[in-house]
């Protein structure tokens, strides 16, 4: 029996023009246009923004082809800037392709980023009806599902409050509940579930799996978390620089992706990397992360890591703290270290050198996730900036490690202790 194709993408390209007008107020756009005509500097250019790329183009997608079948759970993975979110925006009709054709058979319900599709002045209940109307559902059809949506969202207490007063986590919970329960044949999810708590993430993954298996709905899911890709998807494509480099088995796709993430750079510019909503303070920006005295991002077992952070701040901060989370290549947290004393950050650029003891971590592929935060008077954290799994590195094995046995992280974990000292044998 031939499977029904619900999405078909043929040689799709998406090109953006860099440095063009069209993102601010009419007054600002006119100022920028007049400065450009006169050959002057744009008065609306952000501090630190490069001007060399004006009138250049950027190919976000460069001729991608793939099909998605009814009831399939397709994962889309790739590095930052690979074209994942652009693909979902094209499918959701947020933007149009520059070239190529997209065929869609069915209604699409999308969840691309926090707050998408919600009117901030409307209550949660009103936004449910709004989204139902956008999908072409009648009021009676939404009425039949609204209690189920409210229960799933865990936001009943606040359902008649304007969503502009919701936290990012509440936003995500309600947005997912709406997308998953209203009548659409195709569910498109960008990595917005990272904002919610772990229990709700698992609840959402279970729901997406159920709607695909039981209702025959199609799910497209973008994530950097390989564990959720494994848990949800039955097929996966890998994007790299706007091209499909793999299309097939989930485990094979993950292996391709992790191989691509093996970087040779020892210093990365992360100033333009996308931040999660919790890290959008705008007063503090991590601009670079790198290794000190290293020609490549790799360490031997029992070696310590020397890390460099460049941090740009708008105002002096008397006592900032740095947290570094180390994760395995599939996104599993291994350990977390933090500075014990507050650091003074001066207005402007600050370069901070850190030494991190990673000597107990076993061989494998890992990542650093830096977070800058400060403590308030009540002793709770206020996140200023942070990046997730931004710098990949290897810990390489040695002949002396564990008597040359291959370390099994599934049974033994990611941390190794010191050797056992035999005190006595009788």
**Count of helical stretches:** 9
Superfamily (CATH H level) name of the largest domain: P-loop containing nucleotide triphosphate hydrolases
Care to count the β-strands?
20
Large-scale geometry: globular
Category from helices, strands and their pairing: alpha+beta
Mean pLDDT: 81
What is the C-level CATH assignment of the largest domain? Alpha Beta
Report the portion of residues in β strands. Answer: 25-35%
Can you tell me the CATH architecture of the largest domain? 3-Layer(aba) Sandwich
Succession of helices and strands: EHEEHEEHHHEHEHEEHEEEEEEEEEEEH
Poorly predicted runs: 47-55
Note down, in words, how this protein is organized.
- The protein is α+β, with helices and mostly antiparallel strands.
- The chain has 2 domains: 5-260, 3-Layer(aba) Sandwich (Rossmann fold), CATH 3.40.50.300; 267-402, abc- transporter (atp binding component) like domain (Coagulation Factor XIII, Chain A, domain 1, Distorted Sandwich), CATH 2.70.50.60.
- Helices cover 24% and strands 33% of the residues.
- The chain is built from 9 helices and 20 strands.
- A hairpin with a 4-residue loop joins strand 14 and strand 15.
- Helix 5 (168-181) packs parallel to helix 6.
Give the helices and strands, then pairings.
Blueprint: E1 5-17, H1 26-38, E2 57-69, E3 73-78, H2 84-91, E4 99-104, E5 108-111, H3 124-134, H4 139-153, H5 168-181, E6 186-189, H6 198-215, E7 218-222, H7 226-232, E8 235-240, E9 243-248, H8 250-260, E10 267-269, E11 284-291, E12 298-300, E13 305-313, E14 317-328, E15 333-338, E16 343-345, E17 348-356, E18 364-375, E19 381-386, E20 391-396, H9 409-412
Parallel strand pairs: 3-7, 3-8, 5-6, 6-7, 12-20
Antiparallel strand pairs: 1-2, 1-4, 8-9, 10-11, 11-13, 13-17, 14-15, 14-16, 14-18, 18-19, 18-20
